[in-house]
Specification:
The protein has 434 residues and is an alpha/beta fold. It contains 17 helices and 10 strands. The strands form 2 sheets. The chain has a 5-stranded parallel sheet, sandwiched between helices. Strands 7-6-8-9-10 form a 5-stranded mixed sheet, covered by helices on one side.
Amino acid sequence: MTGKGSVWIWERWRRGLSVGMILLLFGAGLFYCNKLFANKQSIQKYEQFFQTDKEFDVLFVGSSHVINGVSPLDLFRDYGISSFNLSMHGNYVKSGYFLLKAALERLEKEGRHLPEMVVLDVYADGEGIGNLHNAWDSFALSGTKKEMIRELAEEKNNMELMMPFSLYHSRWSELKKNDFEPNINLLYGVELRYGVTYPGKEIVRDAKDKKPIEEEKLSYVNKIKTLCESYGIALVLIHIPYSYSPDWQREANSFYEYANENHLCFVNYMNEEMGLDFDIDFFDQGHLNPVGMRQMTREMGELLGSLGVKDRRQEPVAEAWKKEYEEFIDYRVKRLKDITQAKIYLMSLHDPDLTSVIQVKRKLLEDVQIAKLIERLKNGKNEVMIVEEGEKLLPSDGKEGEYDLYCVVHKKETIDSVADSGGFVWEEGVNRRK
């Protein structure tokens, strides 16, 4: 080969290498921008699941009812059950099928431990495009994600779900610290909603009061059943309580028959006596507050234990769970400091790791929710003093002022130090922290 020919070949190779490098850099830049510009809910939710080396024996699947309904940290502390809450806001049975499939495929591909059991909440509405983004934006494009997009999204939204950058590229002027350093959820998929509300008008408690299951929903429950069978995973169906949409409550009752026909375990907790008080255990009419979540988690622990899920509290992994639970206590104490409403504060004090000294003026007990919250705290062995009209509250931490309610809070493990304290005033039914 002549020298001229060699130069020509080298020049072509050099140009090809340059083009390749440019395409590689462009792809890397696009990948980075795709992650940077996307909304962070999906990353915040699932990063712990993607990165942890823990083994999960149970995966929970459902919508926000489950996010606010079952706490893996409490479940491990009280029952030794290792679990992750895969549920996502506004992602119901249909999206849940694909989320579970993607999660199992990832565990299998990485050679990680597969769960023994999947717990599915059968509550379901229709998935909107925004909620699909919230769940799926952190998942790489795969066959399962493409399948989800084809079945659940309108054709006009397909590209933005496959390549979120096409939707978020104009967010450059809105970027904040959380976009560069997302606040990763370290509670194994759970979120705490602090609130106290009265229930809706109709709560369906009779298991015989039912209506047929919507066919498309049932088809996806069947898909989840088949998926679990293909992996040798047991499937359990549940229905977490709420107080709206009575027709959906009635539909859930029809799952008793479905579960019986398919040899599945189903528990509709709407029909169970589990100690939930609809006046004080809900953030809103659809979602449990932290106290309601703790009660729901206790029920799940009893159920899963009875079904044979392993108790790992005597294994080496328990030490890591214990440390994280201690951090969870600190997280809850920190949240106390930001609560400005008396009812929400009293709700938050009903906590297995806290003990409180509470002084409350009798007039506040005329409010049904306040009276129930105070009674529950008394029954939980907190010190409660009812102060008559005309008398002053005398806070045990020595803070003076005119209060209608005053609380001094201690962590049980450090009873000699005050974790938080707060005084509240009651003015024409509006309570605020002073």
